[in-house]
Amino acid sequence: MSEKPLAAAAAAASAPRFEKLSAVKGMNDILPPESARWEWLEDKVRQLMARHAYRNIRTPIVEPTPLFVRGLGEVTDIVEKEMYSFEDKLNGEALTLRPENTAGVVRAVAEHSMLYDGGKRLYYMGPMFRHERPQRGRYRQFHQIGAEALGFPGAEVDAELILLANALWQELGLKDVRLELNSLGQPDERRAHRAALITYLEQHQDALDEDAKRRLYSNPLRILDTKNPAMREVVEAAPRLIDFLGEASLAHFNTVKGILDACGVAYTINPRLVRGMDYYNLTVFEFITESLGSQGTICGGGRYDYLIEQIGGKAAPAVGWALGVERVLELLREQAPTQAPAPDVYAIVPDAAALPQVLSTLTQLRALGVSVQMHAGSAESWGSMKSQFKKADGSGARYALIFGGDELARGEVTVKALRDGAGGAQQAQPLATLAQWAITLQSQH
């Protein structure tokens, strides 16, 4: 063996071998073509929010830990078990990856005095983080879309937000989604109910699981939201918060129901619906499906009139909701399949020498709004016409543009139909009139 192969083999043997890295469990890559479904949903949401005059807000992913401890409640599952919290080594500050975004939006509104000139309607999209066991529709990095209306005390805004979510389901073509409503009243009403609830649960401690016993005196209302079937009978017979509501709270709730009735939106009153955060009061609601197993809640929210003051802002009423993007997309896969996006045109280039002229033409088409995918080869092989046509067909494009040498010499390009039952019909198109052809193509969308 010569010295060169030996040297090459020795170099290869001594080269460092890097361990293959993977994503963190429960934090997933979103790849094409699946990412197109996310873009489609986000576009639908942006259009709907614009029609309802909701404006986009973008808050940091990392927030001060006290924001969530104070806002969500120290004895909630999120704060106790699920937050990704850490200490900033630079300054010792306690920080947390946001587990939800209502608290962040409220913090931003208070910090920037956004309500000085009246109420604000806002929406957001983005990732949230909770350290829990990954399962269908529930991940450690998950995504939410939320709508928040701050500075509006009236029940009509509660109803507006419910109608906004309901309009989204219609826009997406989702079925098998039902609405549940409840009212949590005001703090004094909850305190009276809490006392009665603790007294009742103390009489049934033998039927409580460990989680319920732990919450009995710290957060008994959350016991009503248990998923333990063994406790169902005890929970069903427990005192109902709605029976402790005063005249003003009942009037607020009845106004919400009256508007939904007038708009033809069906709902069920669920007196055990409490939601998972401590900041709610008055109206709470969830949109639920039976198509996703145990992860059936796809959107939930309610009124949170005291949260702004809790985090140090000037007291102001507010109401909002958040939906789980992964769960909505899972439901869409089952109920309303969408096609993967495809370009309008695939450019076939027999000779790489023609690329400058080809790219000049494709740039003009793209400027006119035409989606174009250009063939790309390699230094070793540009690709035969047969292989290029195979890729053009596989791309899903409606047309192939063939930039042959003879056609270009005549100032033309060949347009070949690949879809729409055109049977491969093709025609010569002068480059000078290709823009007009592109405009016609766009009008057919």
Automatic annotation (TrEMBL):
Keyword set includes Zinc: no
GO-annotated molecular function: histidine-tRNA ligase activity
Pfam families (UniProt xref): HGTP_anticodon (PF03129), tRNA-synt_His (PF13393)
Taxonomy, superkingdom: Bacteria
Class of the enzyme per the UniProt entry, highest EC level: ligase
Subunit structure: Homodimer.
Name of this protein: Histidine--tRNA ligase
Organism: Curvibacter microcysteis
